Amino acid sequence: MRFLFFALLLRAAFAAEDDKIVGGNECTPHSQPHQVSLNSGYHFCGGSLVNEYWVVSAAHCYKSKMDIVLGDHNRWFMDGNEQIIPTAQVIPHPNYESWLVNNDIMLIKLSQPATINKYVQPLALPTSCATAGTMCTVSGWGVTMDSSADSNRLQCLNIPILSDEDCDNSYPGMITEAMFCAGYLEGGKDSCQGDSGGPVVCDGKLQGVVSWGFGCAEKNHPGVYAKTCIFTDWMRSTMATY
């Protein structure tokens, strides 16, 4: 159990080391206009724009200062649609528990408002929680494990939300009410380290934040995501305060 838990923490803690969507495909360019990159001289986590001033990411991606890159598709090619905005506030959830990767959600306030256009658009927060079986899209940048794919281009993967029973059986004693599992128990498709903080979008709503898991795309170890729907009151009150 100690080795398993250590491996889980490695996935969350070393977000910048080996980022990849496993088993996905290149997103249609700018089809995920809410997707942002957290950047401190390099991409290290993802996030989601939820209004012109605020981004949602994972608390384990915390850095006191960073730039937010919006409107990007190919990380190594600037096409003029990108916006790079420094942060003004970085606010992890007050009940974030790093040793459990619990309540793994964070708000980031931009130092100036994003310009909303066809390349940069906010994603709606959920008004209710998504149910098991709902198909969702997770996205992120990085190594794809597919030599035919350009790993610098934003990758997308469609995944189903799994039942609480399947999630608990995959990670006995480790799943809290602030988490859900999504993906394929047979393995082969998953989000991974540098995708951390990125969106899980279900029916046009931000239902999840990429958080942790055992390895990447391993059998019987699906990805674990922060359950955004239980944090909407905290997010709305925090955004109204700062």
TrEMBL record:
Residues 21-240 form the Peptidase S1 domain. PANTHER family: TRYPSIN-RELATED, TRYPSINOGEN 1A-RELATED. It is an enzyme of class 3 (hydrolase). Gene3D superfamilies: Trypsin-like serine proteases. Transmembrane segments: none annotated. It is found in: Secreted, Extracellular space. SUPFAM superfamilies: Trypsin-like serine proteases. It catalyses: Preferential cleavage: Arg-|-Xaa, Lys-|-Xaa. This is trypsin. Its main location: secreted. Residues 1-15 form the signal peptide. Keywords: Digestion, Disulfide bond, Hydrolase, Protease, Secreted, Serine protease, Signal, Zymogen. Pfam families: Trypsin. It comes from the Eukaryota. GO terms for molecular function: serine-type endopeptidase activity. GO terms for biological process: digestion; proteolysis. The keyword Coiled coil does not apply. Its EC number is 3.4.21.4. GO terms for cellular component: extracellular space.
